[in-house]
Amino acid sequence: MPIMAPLADFAHVPRSLVVTAWQSASGWANLVTPTTAVVTGGIALAKVRYDRYVKFIVPLMAILFVLIGVFLAIAAWLC
Question: 4 near 18, Cβ under 8 Å?
Fold first, then answer.
């Protein structure tokens, strides 16, 4: 994260937008990462296999990917 602020300054993008993009990508990736304790514990408690979970979550991941991209594009356009 420390390198992101100088990159934002170099690209003439507000630092807050870069932090928002990083947080959005981190949250998006944590939905499917098997090393996240919440995901692993949740699907273990629900007795759902990981491959079934991934098949279920892929459409949601695609929708969220598009929405995050649209919102970040709008934020970049407004700044």
Answer: yes
